[in-house]
Amino acid sequence: MLMNKIHVSVADWQKDNAEIRRIRETVFIAEQSVPPELEWDADDATAVHFLAFEGDFPIGTARLLPDGHIGRVSVLKDWRGLKVGDALMQALIGEAEKRGLKQQMLSAQVQATAFYERLGFHIVSEEFLEAGIPHVDMVRHSV
């Protein structure tokens, strides 16, 4: 498959929530069996959302909360392993730093911790279950 250029942009929840929802429903609710009532919360209204695109097709999303929490990082299956997650995370980290958020935090699925460690995050908790999936809390400090 010939890849178009991957790019990430800040999304508008009001305008783009159908695309954001499509990606998160596919990854979290359909693939990982996260209950819908745990996936959708009031934080979506106040978060800065990001969309990753191949050409003009949305393939990934993530959000940044005002306190520096990063979450809902998700990439559609056919685009995994192509650095889409890296591009999303670099955009989120850049936005967090621009906003003066010197510490970024996230709850990572245990199977994804190496990905986040490559981006400078460190595990700061014991393993715990969230939506039936093993997670750990991770933190990154900006220099």
Describe the structure.
By secondary structure, this protein is an alpha+beta fold. The protein has a domain of 96 residues: 3-Layer(aba) Sandwich (Aminopeptidase). A hairpin with a 2-residue loop joins strand 2 and strand 3.
Quick overview:
With 143 residues, this protein is α+β, with helices and mostly antiparallel strands. Helices cover 34% and strands 34% of the residues.
Question: Which CATH class of the domain at 6-101 is shown?
Answer: Alpha Beta
Q: For the largest beta sheet, what order do the strands appear in spatially?
A: 1-2-3-4
> Spans of 5+ residues with little confidence (pLDDT < 50)?
none
Instruction: Provide mean pLDDT, rounded.
Output: 95
Helix-strand topology string: EHHHEEEHEHEEE
The major beta sheet can be summarized as: 4 strands, antiparallel
Secondary-structure arrangement, i.e. CATH architecture of the domain at 6-101:
3-Layer(aba) Sandwich
* Helix segment tally: 5
The shape, in one word, is globular
Number of strands: 8
Q: What is the CATH fold-level name of the domain at 6-101?
A: Aminopeptidase
CATH superfamily of the domain at 6-101: Gcn5-related N-acetyltransferase (GNAT)
Helix and strand content put the structural class at alpha+beta
Q: Which band does the percent of strand residues land in?
A: 25-35%
Instruction: Classify the helix fraction into a percent range.
Output: 25-40%
Distance between the termini: 39 Å
- Specify Rg, calculated over alpha carbons: 14 Å
